[in-house]
Amino acid sequence: MRAPGALPEPAAVSVAYSLIPVQPSDAPFLLAVYASTRAEELAQVDWTPEQKQAFVAMQYNAQTSHYARVYPEAEYSIIQCGEAPAGRLIVQRGQTALLLMDIALLPQFQRAGVGTAVIRDLMTEARQKGLPVVLHVETFNPARRLYERLGFRVCAE
């Protein structure tokens, strides 16, 4: 999906958050955020908690390795609301686009405007640079509705 750099300026969202650069000590939190994104999917399988945990760790490590290899310049941040870590953000700022690689919030921070605020701020940054924001989202991902509300349009399937 793609949000063109020429979109009108979005309305301000009054959700306070900060972005904290990821440190190696954040790995357990990042794994927990990733696990929360797979919880619904894993509820469908008849695996033990240990099997689910091993699967999530394997998938998280594979994703992390892939991102590091393919996007070595990506910026990794913890999304923080007040004093609480709320999620993660991975962004690749390129010459031709701002790539929103991943945004994930813990369930208790979802549907509270945090993701919208973060994405709108990225869109503002991109617009100021004359760039589009680009992302990939699966057709079954509920976040797709959010992206469409924010002006993103499908550019490839």
Question: If you had to describe this structure to a student in words, what would you say it looks like?
Answer:
The chain has 157 residues and is an alpha+beta fold. Helix content is 39%, strand content 22%. It contains four helices and six strands. The protein has helices at 27-42, 49-70, 114-129, 143-149, and strands at residues 2-3, 18-21, 75-81, 84-93, 98-105, 133-135. It has a six-stranded mixed beta sheet, with helices on both faces. A hairpin with a 2-residue loop joins strand 3 and strand 4 (84-93). Helix 1 packs across helix 2. It starts with a strand and ends in an 8-residue tail after the last helix.
C-alpha end-to-end distance: 9 Å
Taking pLDDT < 50 over at least 5 consecutive residues as the criterion, the unreliable ranges are: 6-12
Gross morphology is globular
Report helical residue fraction: 25-40%
Number of helices: 4
| Quaternary structure of the protein | single chain
Lateral strand order in the biggest sheet = 1-6-5-4-3-2
Secondary structure tally: strands: 6
Overall pLDDT: 89
Order of secondary-structure elements:
EEHHEEEHEH
Estimated share of beta-strand residues? 15-25%
**Could you describe the largest sheet, including whether it forms a barrel?**
6 strands, mixed
Secondary-structure class: alpha+beta
Q: Evaluate the radius of gyration.
A: 16 Å
Please give the structural blueprint.
Layout: E1 2-3, E2 18-21, H1 27-42, H2 49-70, E3 75-81, E4 84-93, E5 98-105, H3 114-129, E6 133-135, H4 143-149
Parallel strand pairs: 5-6
Antiparallel strand pairs: 1-6, 2-3, 3-4, 4-5
